[in-house]
## 1
Amino acid sequence: MKRILLCSIVLLICLPAFAQQPDVNRFTLFTGFDYMVSPARNLTERGFESDFGVTLRPWLALGADFSVLGDGVISGAGTINGSETIYAPTLIAAAGQGLPVPPPSLINVPFSSQTYTFAAGPQFYLRKWKKVTLFARPGFGLIHERASINVPPQLGVLLGALGKPVPSAHLTDTTYFVGAGGGFDLNLSRGVGFRFAADWVNTHLFSNLLTNRQNYVRLSMGPTFRWGTLEAR
């Protein structure tokens, strides 16, 4: 991870020297399909993303990004493993006392979800080629998730017998996330392109239930619309 961060910093420092595309647009609007996965929760969500950016230099823009994914948008579902919950120590202790309790790793509870993200910050461009524009960006913003958990009745009885509260069937949480991402635009014309992007997101949703932070990988693709002209400085 340290090597990746170091290489990213070096690349961003060198970007001004590599910017070679003339006649850069001032404004950029992207909207497209979004696909996000969280391997630890077997979570897969599909939805839409849109972002708007203002170019300040050929190699630098500032913008904001919004996405909505999951159940009720296109699709979103996963499973919660007992080993990543606050109940794991209690279940392990009960099994150690000889009680007929399954190991946390064998407990998987299905859920459906809907996720919203909002981020704002810089985006760094490498405009070395006419037909392709590369970009990289840090990730910092807010993430909101709504989850509907299908707790099996027998699990609810078990948790109650162990003196633990049964999680609500409907949960919501909002917190911050950090990450990084990048991708490239295929420049179809001066005003239209097609974007492919990938982002890594790290956050800790539902910290009152889940003990570990979650990692997400988000893939997006769709058209970009550009207008205006960046004045030479």
Note: The mean pLDDT is 91.
## 2
Amino acid sequence: MNKTHKYYHWIIIVSAVLIAILFNWENYSRFFVFLQNSGKVRFRTGVYTQVSFLIINTAGHFVLFNLLAFFNYTWKNLLIRNSLARGIQIFLIITGNLLIYILFGLLLGWTVNQYVVLQRSFATYFLFANYAVAILAVAEAYFLILLHKVKTAEVTQIKLQEEKKHAELVALKEQISPHFFFNTLTSLSTIVRNEAKEVGLEFIQDLSRVYRYALASGQQNLVTLQEELEFMNAYIFLVKKRFGEKLVYKAENLDDIHTSKIPPMALQLLIENAIQHNIITQALPLTIRLYTEADRLCVENNLQPRETSDSLGIGLQNLANRYRLLTGKEIVIEKQEFWFRVKLPIL
């Protein structure tokens, strides 16, 4: 914000220069016409008077604009505290502006009269002829204050949105672990009941390796597809210990997109979703295909739905929410009579 204030200070100074030149443009024009008619500059009373008036008037506009603009943009905050009543604040602001305008006009008028002698009082001139400069200075100051408040509000809103997004992502990530843990425990329970003790122990060892990735990737919002595929190979190896040949997994032509990014454990959620919601038997094996289509990564399985499921039912919604928060993009879910497909945007 300090850089913003410095930037606005420079805007005030540049505006003061432009206003001073603009408000004295007619005087400059008259002076140049006078020089042309005189042939060449001679240091006489007429030229001296016009040059003195031109310089002091231009400088006066510049200084007056800066005094009023900086008072209203910066200095009044040193004078006014939030603890003061609103009416007192307004009174002090108006009084401060009037004092600057009147005292500066009188001082400048007195200064000009020391060097230039004309028929009218320069004090009167600077008191009443420069009100337009004063109005513009005050207007610009409050415009910059308003602009600063708008910018600050925008930055605050962006920070709040980022914090909200971060909190939602953390909540979604924390939701994955118990979901994954619940389903793998279900698999382990099945193996313990139906397989030999050694198979159960081997499953637990492989499960620990898979969990290491799950814990490590939980610190990241996105991982490369290559990292996710390596995890998927370990996870599929784990799952096939339960289902054997009843589960078929195919990853097709993915070499060109290994450096693309996806949310961690996105593929695992989809495969887990397919396993939890479909019948898997020797007669009805489950086939899961992983392939690309245009700019999307597709996970497809043949559809043979169970009547009941042990899943908590949060996988797809979790993934859709994470994609929406991270990228603003939506996943595409397609369902036909014999197949189910989810398309993930490739990042």
Note: The chain has a mean pLDDT of 76.
